[in-house]
Structures are given as structure tokens and as C-alpha cells.
Amino acid sequence: MKHLTIENLPLHEVVPVLGEFLQLYYIRNSGAAFSLGSGVTWIFTIALSVVAAVIIWKAFNVQSRWWAVVLGALLGGVLGNLTDRLFREPGFGNGHVVDMISMPWMMPAIFNVADIFIVTGMISVALLVVLGLRFDGTRERDHAPVETDEEAEAAAVAAEDPSSPSDGR
């Protein structure tokens, strides 16, 4: 999408797609959201690199399809913008991100597909955490806290012998 934008869209000119509902507007963003922090682009490069590394590291323990999809989307968005930071002008680590999507009726921001994946990914991470879904696919509610050694032993015995009587808890 970024390549098509660079090759086909005029820089800093509105191209209506669906009137003012959806427009294409090619810019190069040196900052973060709303062009904040344009003087410290290198910090975004480091932050994106750390986020990508953590996602890749965590991916080795993911057994949940939901977490795999969400982390994959988030990683795709992060790598999309990190690639711009590393390899676009004005130079390595300080590159400007190519943005091209504008929806002026909704917000005064111009963004790209990677940004959509990052925002959607972060909202999805929050939902998965709130719903208690763990990386291994189990739910938080399936893991009752054990208070004492006796309760831990009783839980272990019950797990080994599902036919043993329950105490009603």
C-alpha cells in the first residue's frame, strides 16, 4: 500500500475516494500520532524495535489462536512502521512514515494500514486480557487460586482422580 501511495499519489493533495468520508492524502510523518514528537523520531524507532522483539519472544509460548492472530496483526503493523523508520528518508532510524488515509469527518489524523493494525491489535489485546484468555488458550477463571498446602494437595488429588467426591466448592 505504501509503495502504491508513493508511486501514484501526489504529495500533500487530497484525492477523494468517497467524498469527505474517505480520502487519500499522501504525507510523510516524522512523528507519532498527530505528528507528535517529530524531533525525536529515533525514540519511536527504538520503541518499535523493542515492541517487535517482545511480540516475537512471546509468540513462542502462544497456543491460543486468538492471541496468535492478535499478536500477528500487531507485529505486522509495528514492522510496517518500523520499516519506514529504518529505511525511508531522511535516514536510517529517523525515516518518515508514509501515511495516506484520511477520514476528516471522524478525526483530523492521516494514517496508514499499519496504524490500523496497531490500534486494532492493542484494542484486541485489552479485550483478551479483560476476557481472561491466556496465551496457552485457557481462561483465567479455569485457574482458581490455591490458598494453602492442604488445598493444593486436595486439588492435585482431585486432578489425578476425577471420580473422587467433591466437597461442593
UniProtKB/TrEMBL annotation:
<keyword id="KW-0064">Aspartyl protease</keyword>
<dbReference type="Pfam" id="PF01252">
    <property type="entry name" value="Peptidase_A8"/>
</dbReference>
<dbReference type="GO" id="GO:0006508">
    <property type="term" value="P:proteolysis"/>
</dbReference>
<feature type="transmembrane region" description="Helical">
    <location>
        <begin position="109"/>
        <end position="133"/>
    </location>
</feature>
<feature type="transmembrane region" description="Helical">
    <location>
        <begin position="32"/>
        <end position="57"/>
    </location>
</feature>
<dbReference type="GO" id="GO:0005886">
    <property type="term" value="C:plasma membrane"/>
</dbReference>
<dbReference type="GO" id="GO:0004190">
    <property type="term" value="F:aspartic-type endopeptidase activity"/>
</dbReference>
<feature type="active site">
    <location>
        <position position="99"/>
    </location>
</feature>
<feature type="compositionally biased region" description="Low complexity">
    <location>
        <begin position="154"/>
        <end position="169"/>
    </location>
</feature>
<keyword id="KW-1003">Cell membrane</keyword>
<comment type="function">
    <text>This protein specifically catalyzes the removal of signal peptides from prolipoproteins.</text>
</comment>
<keyword id="KW-0812">Transmembrane</keyword>
<comment type="pathway">
    <text>Protein modification; lipoprotein biosynthesis (signal peptide cleavage).</text>
</comment>
<keyword id="KW-0645">Protease</keyword>
<comment type="similarity">
    <text>Belongs to the peptidase A8 family.</text>
</comment>
<feature type="transmembrane region" description="Helical">
    <location>
        <begin position="64"/>
        <end position="82"/>
    </location>
</feature>
<protein>
    <recommendedName>
        <fullName>Lipoprotein signal peptidase</fullName>
        <ecNumber>3.4.23.36</ecNumber>
    </recommendedName>
</protein>
<dbReference type="InterPro" id="IPR001872">
    <property type="entry name" value="Peptidase_A8"/>
</dbReference>
<keyword id="KW-1133">Transmembrane helix</keyword>
<feature type="region of interest" description="Disordered">
    <location>
        <begin position="142"/>
        <end position="169"/>
    </location>
</feature>
<keyword id="KW-0472">Membrane</keyword>
<keyword id="KW-0378">Hydrolase</keyword>
<feature type="active site">
    <location>
        <position position="115"/>
    </location>
</feature>
